[in-house]
Write a structure and sequence with these properties.
The protein is about 65% helix and about 0% strand. By secondary structure, it is mainly α.
């Protein structure tokens, strides 16, 4: 996946990596860039999960694997680099 620019890896990590844990292994990204990429993936997973819970359908790519699966992988990847997952603001 080295054909993707750093900026693309951070802004669209799902297009550059197969799994959130792959971000942790990327030797070209700094710790902050890894954190930013994982934050992006986490936000996307939260949005997918929210849409799914509200009965909104998405593309097959977004549904398989499900947002909650990605969210768990993101949390584990963040833990490996010492970052706490984002907390959703309560309404």
């Amino acid at each position: 996946m080295s054909d993707h620019s750093k900026d693309e890896k951070i802004k669209n990590p799902q297009d550059s990596f197969d799994h959130p844990g792959d971000i942790v292994k990327d030797g070209l990204l700094s710790p902050k860039e890894k954190r930013d990429a994982l934050d992006t993936w986490e936000q996307d997973a939260h949005q997918l999960l929210t849409a799914s819970n509200e009965g909104m359908s998405g593309s097959e790519e977004g549904i398989e694997p499900k947002g909650d699966s990605w969210l768990g992988e993101v949390v584990r990847a963040k833990d490996k680099i010492g970052v706490k997952p984002q907390r959703k603001a309560s309404h």
